[in-house]
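Lab manual, section 2.4: Encoding a predicted structure.

Procedure: take the sequence of the chain (476 residues), apply the prediction step described in section 2.3, and record the output as structure tokens. A sample record is shown.
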Amino acid sequence: MEKLLNELSSQCKPAYSVKCDVEINAEIPENLKRKSNLGLPNVAENDLLRHFTNLSRRNYALSTVFYPLGSCTMKYNPLINERIAKIDAFNDIHPYQPVESMQGVLEIVYELEKDLCEIVGMDSFSLQQAAGAHGEFAGLLVIAKYFKSIKQKRTKIIVPDSAHGTNPASITFAGFEIVPLKSEADGSISLEKLKEVLIPEVAAMMLTVPNTLGVFEKNITEISKLVHDNGSLLYYDGANLNAVMGIVRPGDMGFDVMHINLHKTFSTPHGGGGPGSGPIGVKSFLGSFLPVPRIEKRKNKYVLNYRKSKSIGKMKAFFGNFSVILKAYVYVKALGGKGLKNVSKQAVLNANYMLAKFKDKINVPAGSRCMHEFVLSPKAILENDVRTLDVAKRLLDYGYYAPTVYFPLIVDEAIMIEPTETESKDTLDKFIDVVNKIILEEAIEDPQKLKNAPVNTPVTRLNEVEAARKPILKWQ
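Recorded output:
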């Protein structure tokens, strides 16, 4: 893998070098120069080293502890990704330099687009988008431009109540109206309810398959036919692609547009709000609407084509978040088709193992089987005014990042858990034991312990309402 990437990076050269022959200090006006010393303290090297090491220990990272955040696929990020992303030839180039000097970068992006098309069954991809929600927005703009091109006025998008929270926001931001669709108890779609909302004004339906309860949409073929018979398009939210990759392709299910979270499915954890990457894929009849520039291969050269009259335009500067794209490229090439399929199989196996351990003790609203994630509802067990939030806070005392809570909204006191494919049975067993101890023992025997949690963290429980409304944005 490193040999391949070194070969590609050798085709990328810095556009220019910088040499400063003038003493910078001489260029600073006298009135701006400081008149006294900085007053920096003298610190022993050991003290400095310990200071920063101890600060790093306050960070929660996958390299130290299990991260069971449901719907976010916080999997292990292979270290080879980081090594390759730091190669100077990728870091020192400038996106405005001539394309002749960055053929390796363009080849990587071009090849990843083709690989993603094969993995998900689409015909064209754009890798510009900066995150999943950005990809949703771009996909909806493509849908809007398509219907405008065929002179149809369609203003509505159907979205289930089990959808990811970004779906309704993206719909509104793209200028469409939301048509809510009440889902069944397991988050699946009722065909009869769908028929009631499929009116001529509907441009598309957005679906997450498997859904947010970790259940595969059993009626997807029928749903696809109903939507297309209405002249509408089908949009695939790729947040849960981790469960089906290499097993079934969204394009084969009948989806016309989709986004992929490279920073979830293809190994780049996105803690701390970034960086993300949300490429969008489309069927052939929508390819001309994708953002510009399009990377094309002409003979043995890669070029940037801005001459796409039907395009929705530019969505982000340059090539998107290239470091994330590069890591995804490495991940795909390293695993190959068989490896990617094994990723999904292991993710589903891990989730079902955990579900089997919980289901006889804690309510699982969507049943006894799942895909890559599942949702618990301890509402019937919790007493003494103890809630899911208290369970989540108590998990912090045991050194675990809390799972997603209160989502999806259709489940009372929801706890959403996704183990991913990269965790061992031993890790899963330890986490299961802690969750059972908190919910089945501590919450009953000593509820105040949960109400006070966390007590072992550098910052104890916050007033979250106050923090959201009146945040303190400075240290002192």
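Check your result against the sample. The chain has a mean pLDDT of 91.
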